[in-house]
Amino acid sequence: MIQKKLPYQIILVLLFLTLQLNTVMSEELSQSIIVIARHGSLEHTPENTFAAFRKAINVGVRGLEVDVRKTKDGKLILMYDDSIDRTTTGKGYVDALLYDEIKQYDAGAWRGEEFVGERVPLLVDTLQFAKEHQIKILLNVREHGIEEQVLSLIKEVGIIDQVYFSGTLETIRNEEAVIQGTKLIFIPEKELTSDITEFIHERQGHVGTRLFSSDNRDKMKKRMIEGVDVLLTDYPSVAMDVLHYEAKTEQEDNEKIDEYGNHTIRAEGGIHKEQVDEAIHLMTEGSPDKARMAALVMSTFPIEISLPTLKDLLTYNKRLKRFSKIKNFLSTIKHVKSDLFHAMTVRKNAAWALGLTKDKRAVQPLVAQLKTKSSEFKREIILALQMISDKEAIPSLNEIVLNNKEPFVRYDAARALGEIKHLDAVYTLTTALQKDSSWMVKAGCACALGKIGSDKPINVLKAVLVTDAGTEASWTRKTAARTLAKIGERGIEALISSLRDNEKSTRRRASWALIEIGDPAIPHLVRSLRDTNKFARARSAMVLGWIGNKKASHALAWTLNDRELVVRKSAAWALGRIGGGEAKTALEKTVSSEEEKEVLEYAKEAIQRISLLE
Fold first, then answer.
1. How many CA atoms lie within 13 A of 562 on its CB side?
2. CATH code at 1-30+522-614
3. Helix (H) and strand (E) counts for the chain?
4. What pLDDT does 36 receive?
5. CA angle 193, 198, 202 (to 5 degrees)
6. Between the CA of residue 104 and those of 100, 179, 214, 279, what are the distances in Å?
7. Domain locations in the chain?
């Protein structure tokens, strides 16, 4: 008996009805799920910055998770780490720094030239941003003892109904009966059941789930269908794609918001001798906080005044008190230590202020002081050299990167070399990237090499990218991937070859670096669709989908015939994201001939996306 196939027209009608049903389901899902971007949108932006928040809003998320810490002068800022070393051009622990100092440093330059000028946001400005955009805020309080201050600020801005309270904040909220709002309860994936979800919903709560370090669409969709209200992810673009949300065209939304981008401003007009004397007095005799701020003020004076004054203070040596009587010997020792500490504080502040002037004439006096035995003074000098960014400092910085015993000092020197952006530092940075025992220093070297742009360290960078060293190396490996993305043709080839790696995290990092490269990576990715490794083929299709160029449509249509299920799924999704007539035709043929249920679902979903955009 010969089995007749259904006419093609009937298949299309059935397909249309199926798509209508899927559209309704997707719209309902989109309305009920709140996607919260962890630290903002991390795929291509610096964490906990307004650049990340603006990107997340464009992607379509309805919530942001931010990390809160308190500065020395009581300001609440956004910072994940306990120090500002990793995500700004500055250094130091948050609770030991004044906000006026922190806002001098760049919080976006490490992520790319387009983010230069981003500053560490205040929590109050972030809450105001959330209020204006009508999005949820999940506050991750990173230190104990600041909960009451955070809660007070939330009330002041008038955003209580938009805040998810968690952790210690939730405990404080429970003590205040006047505070209402929905409770967010995170349930581990293995413990998530319909009974638990129903129980929480009956008590007017929201069920949340965390999905970190994964851009797996199937996993995200599964959790959404399971009935969660909130998905916290560091790949919000993927989550919104699952919900069929089309990102807004990015307007000139990258404009810097003045109140969040404070730079050092040079004082204008005449400076009186009394003002200079007062600044010197505070730097040498004032409290630590007043002395630091006096150094900041001194850096804004006309350079013909500030430069010689600060150079003198760079070698400041307060006259030590002398006692002749033996009975005062212990008191003498105490005063000597105090005076030495005080003198070192003056010198550190002078070095910092010299860096803020950005005057190249300060380089030699600063380099001369690198012989100090004090690691803290040395770090302050290196920070100053980084701010000035003159190649005259390269030999001294190279020596520190290779031979200093302190990891933080080596890290600072590597960052400084990255800001100078000179090829004379490439050998040093590559050597340290390969041989240094500290993953923090390796990350600093990788980031610096990305700013310089040489292709000489490609093999070393690739070796770092594919190294499995646990969470300790995670940031370094991400940095290596981003650096390869900046190098050019050879960097692309290294990333493409990393798509074959057995470890998921390596493939994921390489994928998003290639997405960041965009169109120049397309020919390499198209060739990779024929790779013998199924992971490389699947990831290449996915990356082409995110890049979204129709030039890849023909190759992806051909990939719909791949022998591996995971590859065909990726190709179907990618064609739906790219859109156009060729993509739609290839997908319709797939629906009429495909036997695998998962591929059928992906193809139907892809046709739905294209139809909605036509």
1. 27
2. 1.25.10.10
3. 29, 8
4. 94
5. 155
6. 7, 37, 34, 19
7. 1-30+522-614, 33-260, 268-388, 393-517
221 burial type by CB count under 10 A (0-12 exposed, 13-18 middle, 19+ buried):
middle
- For the record, the structure tokens of 496 come out as 């493409």
Instruction: Tell me what the mean pLDDT of segment 250-263 comes to.
Output: 44
Extract the tokens encoding 554: 């023909």
Please say whether the beta carbons of 567 and 595 come within 8 A.
Answer: no
What is the Cα–Cα distance from 389 to 586, expressed in whole angstroms? 54
Cα–chain center distance at 349: 29
As to burial, measured by CB atoms within 10 angstroms (0-12 exposed, 13-18 middle, 19+ buried), residue 489 is exposed
Name the average pLDDT for the chain.
87
| pTM for the full predicted model | 0.87
365 Cβ contact partners less than 8 Å away, ≥ 6 residues apart: 311, 314, 354
Summarised one tens digit per residue, pLDDT across range 225-247 is 878 899 999 999 999 999 877 66
pLDDT of residue 4: 43
What is the average per-residue pLDDT within 291-319?
92
What is the chain's alpha carbon radius of gyration, rounded to the nearest angstrom?
28
DSSP structural state of residue 564: S
Residue 62: both structure tokens together: 């309805």
CA 129 to chain centre: 19
Classify domain 33-260 at the CATH class level.
alpha beta
For 102, 361, 480, 506, the CA distances from 477, given in Å and listed in that order, are 27, 37, 5, 8
DSSP strand pairing (63-70 vs 76-78)? antiparallel
Would the CATH topology of 33-260 be identical to that of 393-517?
no
Tens of pLDDT along 38-87?
987 667 899 999 999 999 999 899 999 999 999 999 999 999 999 999 99
- Coil, helix or strand for 90? coil
One-letter amino acid for residue 283 of the chain: M
CA–CA distance, 312 with 309 (Å, rounded to integer): 5
Phi-psi region of 173 (alpha: psi -120 to 50; beta: other; left: phi over 0): alpha
Q: What is the pLDDT of residue 225?
A: 82
State whether residue 42 is helix, strand or coil.
Answer: coil
Q: Give yes or no for residue 336 having a pLDDT over 90.
A: no
**pLDDT reading at 581 higher than 50:** yes
Q: Tokens for 149?
A: 């201050």
Q: How many Å apart are CA 150 and CA 126, to the nearest integer?
A: 12
Rounded CA-CA distance 254/53 in Å is: 10
- CATH architecture of residue range(s) 393-517: Alpha Horseshoe (1.25)
- Tracing tokens 């500055």 back to the chain, one arrives at 90
Residue of 138, 150, 120 lying closest to 206 (CA atoms): 138
Token pair for 592: 């009429």
433 burial via Cβ count (<10 Å: 0-12, 13-18, 19+): buried
| Euclidean distance between CA atoms 286 and 279, whole angstroms | 9
Scan for tokens 């041989």, then name that residue: 435
Q: Are 86 and 71 in contact (CB under 8 A)?
A: no
pLDDT reported for residue 213: 87
What token pair was written down for 267? 């004082």
